[in-house]
Design goal:
Distance between the termini: 45 Å
Radius of gyration: 22 Å
CATH architecture of the largest domain: 3-Layer(aba) Sandwich
CATH topology of the largest domain: Cobalt-precorrin-4 Transmethylase, domain 1
Number of strands: 15
CATH class of the largest domain: Alpha Beta
Shape: globular
Oligomer: single chain
CATH superfamily of the largest domain: 4-hydroxy-3-methylbut-2-enyl diphosphate reductase, catalytic domain
Bound molecules: iron/sulfur cluster
């Protein structure tokens, strides 16, 4: 299903940016009135998000008079979700949740599944209502589910590098439980992976371990038994380099515990890092040598991949993660979310006087238009 010409025009008006197109054409560098912008080589809508948004718009076009629902945000970008609200979409859960619940759906309704998929329980409840489903789940996410299901078939516990509260990880872990003997544990970062590695090598206090991973393990998880055979998977939007390091760390732990000869009976890992996420993260790293005065990262505050871009750039430049141009309060003050914090803060004197080099990137769910508005707002100060 593709949007027709009329819908394509709307999509273009809402998401296309002339200034961003011009900057891309000029090699991603743009100078004016003493400000030089360095856009990363890769930023903004990825193929999965592009497809999901197209499908959502095409669905509205195909069913102009039908109630349309989303199980939750289609992607983690406020502008896109608000546009869908204005088009008549109702959200069943999440920050834009409307008054209709899954129990109140009828067979006449159409339900759109977001790019990061949905958990099997929600899917079943919607299917039981007889609704028509439009599934925009990204192929890279489906790939991970296939991998996870193969681990479980071979009686491996799935170790997911991800956020246990993120919709994609919840969808992935629900696939593990499709199989009655399926087990999973979600590790957020290297620190948590190290905890698991330590337990694999030396054991430990089971109760303390289970308490620590209380919200991140499958029901009845027993670390004494369920860490004997593990297969690695990751949430697509995590820091790719960290996913690799975690896999390596856990592999070493299994080697130590079981030796090289039987390693393949205890440890499995396949690269499931999404290439779009990887490209965007590498593109930020490539700006490191540009002598930037600051870096602007544009994207939803609840967007996992945008937060990772913010983390990477904050390693080498003063970084401001903003959702849109309205967060730039003036040439003096900017509202932004520092990496690792939930709340926004306002920072003064963010834009140096005189010539300034600004790096710009955006998460995989950020439309070019939102990035373009940010660039234009900054240019308006000179
Ligand atoms: S970030 Fe990767 S997995 Fe997620 S929608 Fe984009 S392409 Fe798909």
């Amino acid at each position: 299903m593709k949007p027709g010409n009329a819908m394509q025009d709307i999509l273009s008006r809402q998401y296309y940016s002339h200034i961003i197109a011009r900057i891309k054409k000029g090699g991603n560098v743009y100078s004016k009135n003493g400000i030089t912008f360095y856009l990363t080589d890769s930023f903004g809508f990825c193929y999965g998000v592009d497809r999901a948004v197209d499908l959502a718009y095409a669905t509205r076009e195909k069913y102009p008079n039908t109630r349309l629902f989303l199980t939750t945000e289609i992607i983690h970008n406020p502008r896109v979700n608000k546009n869908l609200l204005e088009m008549g979409y109702q959200f069943l859960t999440g920050p834009y949740k409307g008054h209709v619940t899954v129990d109140e759906l009828t067979a006449e309704d159409v339900v759109v599944i977001p790019a990061f998929g949905t958990d099997l329980q929600t899917l079943k409840r919607v299917l039981d209502k007889g609704c028509q489903i439009v599934d925009t789940t990204c192929g890279s996410v489906l790939n991970i589910w296939r991998r996870v299901e193969s681990y479980i078939k071979d009686h491996f516990t799935v170790v997911i590098h991800g956020k246990h509260y993120h919709e994609e990880t919840q969808a992935t872990s629900s696939r593990v439980l499709k199989n009655p003997h399926g087990k999973y544990i979600v590790v957020l970062n290297m620190k948590e992976a190290d905890h698991v590695a330590h337990y694999i090598c030396q054991g430990g206090d089971k109760e303390t371990f289970l308490k620590k991973f209380e919200k991140a393990t499958s029901p009845g998880f027993d670390p004494d038994h369920d860490l004997e055979k593990i297969g690695l998977a990751n949430q697509t939007t995590m820091l790719g380099s960290e996913s690799l390091s975690i896999a390596d760390h856990l592999k070493k732990a299994m080697l130590k515990r079981y030796g090289n000869k039987t390693l393949s009976e205890h440890f499995l890992n396949f690269d499931t890092i999404c290439s779009a996420t990887d490209d965007r993260q590498n593109a930020v790293m490539a700006l490191e040598g540009k002598k930037l005065n600051l870096m602007i990262v544009v994207g939803g505050y609840n967007s996992s991949n945008t937060n990772q871009l913010c983390y990477i750039s904050s390693q080498f430049a003063s970084t401001y993660h903003i959702e849109n141009f309205e967060d730039i309060l003036s040439s003096e003050a900017i509202r932004h979310k520092p990496h690792g914090q939930w709340e926004t803060v306002v920072t003064n004197d963010w834009l140096p006087k005189g010539p300034v080099n600004i790096g710009v990137t955006a998460g995989a769910s950020t439309p070019d238009k939102v990035v373009g508005d940010v660039v234009e707002k900054i240019l308006s100060f000179r």
